[in-house]
Write a structure and sequence with these properties.
38% strand, conserved putative lor/sdh protein from methanococcus maripaludis s2 fold, elongated, Elongation Factor Tu (Ef-tu), domain 3, 6-stranded antiparallel barrel
């Protein structure tokens, strides 16, 4: 009985020992240990980096304005007549004096011919009256003609001379009327939509006229800024003694529409809105500004020397305000509160929080937390990362 009991106990001890070894081997394969897992390096996050640049930065004041034509003229007829020709195409660029339309000139030419004939008749009568006056004067000197006859002839000569002057004035007036039969452009500009067709009778009573000619070279922009910036503008005007530069952009600030100069600060503040109106003039040689267009105006009021700038995508918004991810020498990141003076043309001007030549994260911030290890991407890989980040970034 004793031998039967001892043998199974020994076998049981051996089985337990083997099971323990197998359990340990399964839990830590290939000789790994818990300490080895703890010593594994943390994962790195690929990001696009940039450097804080230091250079002169222009300071702009941003406003919204409307483009207005330098001159807008409604071409109307000053006489009545039938349109016999239209000499422009809608939307055509014209110069001052270009013929736009022709009114039938024949009635007005006939008036000139009639008045010219009357003048020539009066001239002939004047020549005869002057000859008679010369003869009467000679006869009067010899006592063969009465003084009354000489005076009467002198009055006749004077009457005819004045009649000729009146004829000349009527001819000049008729020539002016004849000139009105040609409707010409009063300014350089672009013609709009034609308001009347050939063959119709046009007159001064036609309120729509013939066409509107709009001068767009140069062109003006009226925009508004808060009244609080007025002292800054006035100070800069006194400092530079030159018109301040103004840049016009489209509504999403992606296209530069033209560079101009400030021409006027309006003489009163709009109390209803607490703003001041300003007017800028642009050469507009490329016709990128168009009357009635709503644009963004940027007024250059100063230049920040040795300013610090970073790409606009560096600036992140948090509960406590803007911040940026700064890359430390050990390739970890930290969040740094920053103060932004302005964001212009994709660059942010930093007032505080960053130093020149520091490395910052330009793209890939949504994957980061303070202390995260990062790997900087360059070249084509950086471009791909930006595109992927644009697709994966959470919608704010």
């Amino acid at each position: 009985m004793r031998k039967k009991i001892v043998i199974p106990a020994a076998a049981l001890i051996a089985v337990l020992a083997v099971g323990g070894v197998l359990a340990v081997t399964h839990k830590f394969p290939f000789g790994q240990s818990v300490a080895a897992d703890a010593a594994a390096p943390p994962p790195t996050v690929p990001v696009v980096g940039g450097v804080v640049a230091q250079h002169d930065v222009p300071i702009y004041l941003d406003g919204v304005g409307t483009v207005i034509a330098y001159n807008t003229v409604l071409v109307r007829s000053q006489i009545q007549g039938q349109l016999v020709s239209i000499n422009f195409t809608e939307g055509q660029t014209v110069k001052t004096g270009d013929l736009l339309a022709q009114i039938d000139p024949r009635p007005y030419q006939a008036q000139i011919d009639q008045m010219t004939a009357t003048r020539d008749r009066d001239k002939a009568q004047l020549a005869n009256a002057q000859a008679n006056l010369s003869r009467y004067t000679q006869l009067g000197d010899k006592g063969w003609a009465t003084p009354q006859l000489v005076e009467t002839q002198k009055a006749q000569v004077a009457q005819l001379q004045n009649a000729i002057k009146a004829d000349e004035a009527l001819i000049d007036a008729a020539k002016v009327q004849l000139g009105y039969t040609q409707l010409t452009s009063p300014v350089d500009g672009v013609v709009g939509i034609r308001q009347i067709d050939i063959g119709n009778i046009i007159s001064p009573a036609n309120t729509n006229g013939l066409v509107v000619v709009t001068q767009i070279e140069p062109i003006s922009l009226i925009f508004t800024l808060p009244e609080t910036v007025l002292p800054q503008i006035q100070q800069q005007q006194l400092k530079t003694k030159q018109p301040l530069a103004v840049v016009a952009y489209n509504q999403d600030n992606t296209i530069n529409l033209g560079d101009g100069a400030l021409g006027l600060v309006n003489n009163q503040i709009l109390q209803a809105t607490g703003s001041i109106q300003l007017k800028a003039n642009f050469p507009n040689k490329e016709h990128r500004l168009w009357p009635g267009q709503l644009v963004n105006a940027r007024l250059l009021v100063d230049t920040r020397h040795d300013g610090l700038t970073v790409p606009a995508s560096v600036v992140q918004q948090g509960p406590k305000g803007p911040y940026a991810y700064v890359i430390n020498p050990d390739h970890t990141v930290e969040t740094r509160p920053i103060t932004v003076a302005q964001i212009s043309e994709g660059q942010a001007l930093i007032d505080s929080g960053l130093k020149a030549n520091e490395q910052v994260v330009v793209d890939g911030q949504y994957k980061l937390q303070p202390g995260t290890h990062v790997a900087l991407l360059t070249g084509h890989a950086a471009e791909e990362a930006k595109a992927q980040s644009a697709q994966q970034a959470p919608i704010p």
